[in-house]
């Protein structure tokens, strides 16, 4: 069955979106340093609220997209939990945002590996940054993590290896490892999740990676590194040279794709097929939410063609476009958040 919504226009005016595009895009790719990775420190939401905005003054941050999210009381964030260690000894970590009333660090059920009646659905949050930069603790992506927690999901904001130091498939391998880590019985118990209800959310490069998680493997969506739903904003879905040229991708986008894939020419880059979610689809893949602006950095044809391919395979999906050029979580305003949350609740439960 196919569940596709008509394209939706939101109330934000095109002129306002275009005005803030440049400033917002710069903010989205900003990074924050990671220091002193530990086994995980739980921080009350009031501490995080006091520390946010110190790197960039609030006056310089346009209040659009995810920045319109107001954090409710009671959320907790467990920071810098190491989920794997690379061959050279470098750790990779994630942050866990838990809903109000949940108790990170305590068992969810009487027996590890069994979901308690109160077990919560989980969402893996994947930051953007052109595959070359970004951080789980970036202010905007921390807001994403906390927003997901406010909707009743246990959200895992994950760091992964970046290009060009680590080219494809390094990042997606890391994220698959993170999902497997989340499903370990001791981690299921620690954060009180249902391992059969794990979804993924990403924006921009993170959207591409979220879709790759969704199209990775075949069969059951409740085991291994598979996820049961994917919501993405502004995701590149076909990285082949032919598709990028046909879609009118900018030279900048094509250059970023080359760096991500470790190629020197899109005409001779076989890994582009493996890195293109639209070319990896099969009928066992999960439902997908697609959100995008109609005149932004990622050509709209990348979204519409992907939706057509989902439709052809009978995979449930929603495609929502908004007017303007704002990219990724810049379009994650109150209306888009409601759309995404409704999709995730419909596919993962409450």
UniProtKB/TrEMBL annotation:
This protein's source sits in the domain of life called Bacteria
Instruction: Provide any one GO MF term from the record.
Output: hydrolase activity
Spell out the InterPro entries in the cross-references: AB_hydrolase_fold, BD-FAE-like_dom, GDXG_lipolytic_enzyme
Asked if the Swiss-Prot or TrEMBL record annotates the protein with the keyword Cytoplasm, the reply is no
> Where does the BD-FAE-like domain start and stop, copy by copy?
117-310
Report which residue ranges the record marks as coiled coil.
none
Record bears the keyword Cell cycle: no
Mind telling me which Pfam families this protein's record contains?
BD-FAE (PF20434)
UniProt keyword terms in alphabetical order = Hydrolase
Kindly give the PANTHER family that the UniProt entry links to this protein. Answer: AB HYDROLASE SUPERFAMILY PROTEIN C4A8.06C, ALPHA_BETA HYDROLASE
For this entry, the protein name equals Alpha/beta hydrolase
Q: Which organism is it from?
A: Cryobacterium fucosi
Native organism taxonomy:
Bacteria, Bacillati, Actinomycetota, Actinomycetes, Micrococcales
